[in-house]
Structures are given as C-alpha cells and as structure tokens.
Amino acid sequence: MIELANLGMRIGSLCSGVGGLELGLEWAGLGQTVWQVEIDPFCRRILSKHWPSARRFADVHHVGKKNLSYADLICFGFPCQDVSSAGTKVGLGGAQSGLFYECARVVEEIGPEWVVVENVTSGAKLWVDAVTGKLGELGYACLPIPLQASDVGALHLRARIFVVAHSDRQRQRAESGLTEVASAPSPAGAGASDADRVELRQLEQRHARRDNGVRDTRKTESEFPGWWEPEPNVVRVVHGLPEGLDATWDGAHRLAALRAADELASVRVAALGNSVVPQCTEVVGWVIRELIEEAAA
User: Fold this and answer.
1) In the Cβ-directed half-sphere of 38, how many Cα atoms lie within 13 Å?
2) How far separated are the first and last CA of the chain, in Å rounded?
C-alpha cells in the first residue's frame, strides 16, 4: 500500500454544515482543518465531535483576520436558497445566498492560496459567473468543476459545482490549467455558464431518450449486489420514533415525545440537506494536488 503524502495545508471552513467539504479535502491528503464557522448549534456539535482540535465560531459576520488564523485553503458552500431552482432565484442579491459576500470578505482578509466554493448545479447561471467574477477581483484564477454523487458511486445525483480558485496575485497568468471564466455567451445558451450548458445538454439527452421510447440504460439496484435501494424521500430516513418510546404512555406524554422526536428529525434533515458528499470533495482535493504537482514540475 502506498502511503499518501500529506501536503500540510491549514484548512479553514466557512458555512461548514456537518463538515463534508473539509472531510473530503482531508481525505485527499491536503492537510488539517484548523477552524470552522457554522451558525447551527446541532451542526457545531457534530463538528466538535469529529474535529475536536479545530477552533469553532458561530457567525461568519463576526469572523475575519481579527480572530481567524491563517489558512492555506478556505472552503465553503454558501446558502443555496436564492440560487437553487427550487428557491427564490434572485441570485446572490438574496438575503441568504448573499452570505457569499461575507465569505468573500473573509477570503480577502485572510488571503489563502486556495479557495473551494460549492453550490447547486440547478441554479449555476445565478451564481457561478458572479462567484468567479468576485474571486477574480480578489486575485484568484478559477476553475468550475461539475460533480454529482453518482460520479463517485452513489445511486443518486446530488449535482453540485465546485469552484477551485488559486491565488494569481503574483502572476500575470494562471498556471496549471486554471483559467479565468469567460462570460461571453455561446450558442449552447446565451449568458449561461459552462456548468449550466453541461446540465442543459444532459437534460436534453434524458428527454430525447424518453421521447424516443429508448430504455434508460442506467443500472438499477438489482445490478449492484449488496447495494440498497435509495429512499425516495430523505425525511423517511431520519423521521422515526426513538427506541424505547412506550405505546402505553398516556396521551400527554406520548404527544410530547412525538413532538420532541419530530423536532430532532427536522434538525437532522436540515443538517443532511446542507451537507456535501465528501467523496466528491475528495475528487476536488485530488485536482488541487495535481495542479500543485504540475506547477512544481
């Protein structure tokens, strides 16, 4: 077995959720997480269990150079409510997705060499160009990478885009394949980002298969021995009564227990909904390693 060399980076995480971004980057051997910023108390408890040595902060509005140590890499997945196809679709001007600009402020103050930003593919045109444009203003060359959970072996899609940004302040041109994102429209979709055009092509192909009566050739659960059928609704996975709930309790106690179980389930659903598939982030980590190796060659 070949031992993976750890690059020794200091990793900082904003809008950490339950740590899917930093976990995948650590799996790729980039380094160790030194601080995390997460406003949800339940998620912070999870983070404290898995990263006991990292410092934790509650609010991205209240952190920066004044209280965060230097990090070689800062990662974050800002709230998606205003950029998702299921959300308000107002873009980064929205009250929630606009938190990106607070994260960008932290990046500007800390000045890491690398930045990794993650969010949904479904609303790529509402955020990718704006994010890469802002990072470009801060001196970073950007590479958007579309990835979905099925790319790393899962039976669901969970399509995401990871923007890998490298500090370009000391170079006139980005090295190792990193390029500034062009905003010029193309025939595939005027004004759409490259990631959006990829999604549009995939949608067109799926619709073509359906309309032409061609059987979808994607493998089913029976073709993967040992794999389980994915739940159609994530709520079903976490909604359930805790063991020991006694059906003989009187109505008042039973109702209180049900409410408590439902509240806990809602918190867990929120944590799952905000999470990132760490295997996808590990792929991003390997891309960064390859870029570093190419630059050093």
Assistant:
1) 29
2) 25
